[in-house]
Amino acid sequence: MTTAPVSATPPAAVKQRLTGLDAFRGFDILTMVFVNSIAGMRAIPFFLRHAAADQDVFTLTDVVFPGFLFIMGVSIPLALARRRAAGAGTPALLGHIAVRTLALLFLGVILVNEDRFSAAATGLGKDLWYFLATLAVFVLWAAFPKAAAPSKKRLRLGLKAAAAVLLVVLAAVFRGQGPGGQVTWLQTSWWGILGMIGWCYLAGSLLFLAGRGDRTVLAGAIGLAAALYVGGRHGALDFLGPVNGFLNVASLFGSHTAIVAAGMLAGTLFLPGSGLASPRARARFLAVLGAALLAAGFVLRPLHGFSKIHGTESYCLATAGISALVLLLFYLGLDVLGGGRAAAFLLPAGRNPLLAYLLPGFIMNASALLGGLAGVDLHRFLWPFAAAGGLAGMLNAAVMTGVVLLLTALLTRAGLVLRL
Fold first, then answer.
1. What is the DSSP letter of 370?
2. Alpha carbon 279 to chain centroid, angstroms
3. What pLDDT is attached to residue 5?
4. Which residue, 3, 375, 377, 402, is most buried by CB atoms nearer than 10 A?
5. Which residues, 6+ apart, have CB-to-CB distance to 398 below 8 Å?
6. Kind and range of the H or E element at 184?
7. Backbone φ and ψ of 184, nearest 5°
8. What percent of the chain shows pLDDT beyond 90?
């Protein structure tokens, strides 16, 4: 079964948002904020920690990142359809994909270098550097209404230009310290979460455009991507040489892209002309897709086991299946049964995910700078139970996650929405 090509999607039919998808995204982002906050604490239950690389298991925390990749996959057909319906041709779509990919890679590299930052070599304190960098990101990628007055547009464009210059300067002066004590510049390392999202977004978007949203193509791509990982583990990609070390092709374009392809397959259900317009048909499709992916993950488990760290094919397929089933629950509960009010608190983070993701680090950098000026340890005030861990530490993390949610809602209402 095929879907209508993206180019054929009429404008009026792609403007309505899926409340369930936004709520699922918000839930996933806030869960990510929470589990990142308790990482490293003592006495945390196993199911809330990442499983070790050699453990043949995945935890609740290990499902968060593939959940976001799946959600991104669902969003790709909808986003490209909206742009196509607004008059964007293929060159414009490719340009948008390239810019968004580069932005995600840039942000990913910045964040992944935080642990190796050298204040002495850079000439700036780490908290000040990352505070300024995040502030510049907020300004540079803040969306503003197209109908704004010309004077406001000029002011905002000027601020964006200044933010871009600041980011370039900060990147130029950045210096880190390597494992041997050597001074280094920004390193790609493993690209970070945002960088991995960037590469998978690039692969998924190009795949969707090349296949014109055909479900058969997307289903085949899931299998091919999983096979690419398996082949990579057994030497089939060795001919790529140093490219593997730079990109980890088997993981980024193999198993993790399989999650995005599964999400795109689910996303085609909500395109006009999909042939599955009724809630019952969509629910049946998502249920079968989720069960099939979950079963495939368990069937392939003997090959390389479940491992988030290695991004094994069985782990990625199984977590993609879980994500499809969770999307089904959100869709039925919010879009079909109309329970949107119950999940309204999740929507700001779901519709402004980059802001919610960056806010925890920004809060910590800002509190460290303010505490330094006032001679007060604000970190201890914000995180009184971080060292204790356990239930107290988890409650502390839950409160801080609530703070992030509240700030995201307030800033979103004030008009600060980040769009790459």
1. H
2. 27
3. 56
4. 3
5. 34
6. strand 183-184
7. -130, 165
8. 87
Across 233-245, b (16+ Cβ under 10 Å) vs e yields: beeebeeeeeeee
Burial of 246 (0-12, 13-18, 19+ CB in 10 A): exposed
Helix or strand holding residue 176 (H, E)? strand 176-177
Tell me the residue type at 345: F
- Look up residue 128 and give its two tokens: 């000040």
- Which pair of structure tokens corresponds to residue 48? 């809330």
Give per-residue burial for 17-56: e unless 16+ CB within 10 Å, then b: ebbbbbbbbbbbbbbbbbbbbbeebeebeeebbbbeeebe
pLDDT value of position 16: 67
Whether 144 is covered by a domain: the verdict is no
pLDDT digits (tens, 9 = 90+) for 395-410: 999 999 999 999 999 9
Number of domains comprising the chain = 1
CB atoms within 10 A of CB 295: 13
| Coil vs helix vs strand at 177 | strand
The SS3 assignment for 84 reads helix
Mean pLDDT, range 291-314, rounded to an integer: 97
CA distance linking residue 177 with residue 338, whole number of Å: 53
Domain that holds residue 195: 6-113+187-413
Residue keyed to tokens 């909206």: 82
With CA atoms as reference, report the closest residue to 213 among 71, 6, 1, 75. 6
Helix 279-304 × helix 215-233 angle, to 10°: 10
150, part of any domain = no
